[in-house]
Amino acid sequence: KLGLHRNIDLALHLPLRYEDETAVWPIADALDAGAVQLEARVVDVSVQYRPRRQLVARLADATGELSIRFLNFYGSQLKQLQTARDEGRTLRLFGEVRRGYLGNEMVHPRYRMVAPGDSLPSALTPVYPTTAGVSQTNLRRLISAALTVVDLSDTLDPEEVGLPALAQAVSALHGPRSGVSMSALQAENQAAWRRVKLDELVAQQL
User: Fold this and answer.
1) pTM over cut 0.85
2) Cα separations in angstroms, 185 against 14, 150, 152
3) Are 187 and 197 in contact (CB under 8 A)?
4) How many CB atoms neighbour CB 140 within 10 A?
5) By the 8 A CB rule, do 139 and 130 touch?
6) Burial of 157 by CB count in 10 Å (0-12 exposed, 13-18 middle, 19+ buried)?
7) pLDDT tens digits for range 15-51
């Protein structure tokens, strides 16, 4: 459905947007900061029934507390969070912190258990166009594998056009390093985006 049949198709299946999982925010600074990554301990877990059945966990770090809510959840998820609470485990979670009727909260954040000192990614996380049944995790794995074998030979001289080589540009768009301007990436006017657009225009003319 996505039209991805060859390695070149995967290599040129470029991200829609990016998520920054290269840093951890303190809870106290996360409200209305957009999508952020937090690390916190689970201090309480319960299933609540007002206004509807939902799983609620209270989390804390050195700067404050917040709730996470799941309107759809499994029994295994409840047990996982209870175990994290009982064992003093740390969650690394990603989402938007907003004011809710329970105070500051994340609704349906993405999360996983981590150990103290677990490393952070060095690149922004790409989010790709996808279709039902194809997860972001699988797309990232397939695209990463394709980039190791695909031929992205230059049809234009990088020095002559004053932009990165095509292979360098495509690689940078799939895994931009931390510190790259998120706004420039989103606006698609960063050098790597301009190089890919130039190649598309040349291909159309040819």
Assistant:
1) no
2) 11, 23, 21
3) no
4) 17
5) yes
6) exposed
7) 999 998 999 999 999 998 889 999 999 999 999 987 7
